[in-house]
Amino acid sequence: MKKIRIIPRLDIKGPNVVKGIHMEGLKVIGHPPEIAKRYYNAGADEMLYMDIVASLYGRGIDVGLVKSVAREIFIPLTVGGGIQSIHDINNVLHAGADKVAINTFAVRHPEMLKDAVRQFGSQCIVLSIEAKKSPEGTWEVYTDGGREHTGLEVMEWTKKALSFGIGEILITSVDNDGTRKGYDNALIQEIESISPIPVIACGGAGSMDSVKSALQKNKIDGIAMATVLHYDEYSIHDLKKYLHNANFPMRI
Fold first, then answer.
1. Which residue in 94, 119, 163, 175 has the most C-beta neighbors within 10 A?
2. For position 35, what pLDDT does the model report?
3. What would the pLDDT profile of 151-207 be if each residue is shown by its tens digit?
4. Is residue 252 in a domain?
5. pLDDT class for 145, splitting at 50, 70, 90?
6. How many angstroms from the chain centroid is the CA of residue 127?
7. For residue 127, what is the enclosing H or E element?
8. Is residue 71 in a domain?
């Protein structure tokens, strides 16, 4: 049985790890390499590095900063934000990333996903989806750090991206991000019901019970979290022990 992955998420703005609510009102948490090392030593299974303003500002990712994070950890590292070309993907992988997450540019240029999979293999390419619930009860894809409408319905976009051979989906609820009120299980269920590839849930981690609930209600492969770790509400080790005692397969 596959073990559930616990994945700290580092939201990056400039030289800092930041965190807000609904991806807004960002507060500085600390220096990326130091925080990455702390979570690695605490038992993280993977790490997410997401430059949440690179696309918004129209700039590329800071490869030097990615390198400084990659040097501190010895677990898979997924990097996203500001990826706009095959060249960018190549640079990020050479900087130490194992996988690359793409959202904004993929929405605007979907064929890029197909080209990326052909060039680097599906195992390297993660579709990052930032979703907000619409008044009609469906979910809309957002870009640029959860700030820009696309008019794309999440399920429609997911099906299209899957046809390009992507290897993993990171689904982030912008509505729940930073709120500590739990994951958007209805959104996750929509995605995992059609996905033959691993799904990572992000946005809303609160109590350890809220994490357990997400795992009970969804067939997901990993849980990404930030706020509860940044503010020391509990440790990765304690969460893993709690989930292991609830009979979930964990790397202890």
1. 175
2. 98
3. 999 999 999 999 999 999 999 999 999 999 999 999 999 999 999 999 999 999 999
4. no
5. confident
6. 9
7. strand 125-133
8. yes
Catalytic annotation present for 111: no
pTM: 0.96
Exactly one of 51, 72, 88, 130 is catalytic; name it.
130
Catalytic residue selected from 11, 45, 140, 144 = 11
Q: Cβ-count burial of 58 within 10 angstroms (0-12 exposed, 13-18 middle, 19+ buried)?
A: exposed
- From the CB of residue 24, how many other CB atoms can be counted at a distance below 10 Å? 12
Distance CA 34, CA 160 (A): 38
Let me know if residue 251 belongs to a domain.
Answer: no
Reported as type and span, the H/E element at residue 233 is: none
Is the pLDDT assigned to residue 244 strictly greater than 90? Answer: yes
Summarised one tens digit per residue, pLDDT across range 21-72 is 988 889 999 999 999 999 999 999 999 999 988 877 677 789 999 999 999 9
Enclosing domain of residue 123: 5-245
Place of tokens 């979703």: 131
Token pair recorded at residue 24: 């807004």
The structure tokens listed for 180 are 């500590």
The vertex-175 CA angle with 163 and 70, nearest 5°, equals 65
CB 242: neighbour CB atoms within 10 A? 17
- 130 among known catalytic residues: yes
Cα dihedral 214, 220, 223, 224 in deg (nearest 10): -120
Number of domains in the chain: 1
- Neighbour count for residue 208 (Cβ, 10 Å): 18
Token digits of residue 248? 């979930």
Instruction: Give the C-alpha separation, 152 to 130, whole Å.
Output: 11
| Tokens 């390198």 -> residue | 67
Locate tokens 């979930």: which residue?
A: 248
The owner of tokens 């989806």 is 129
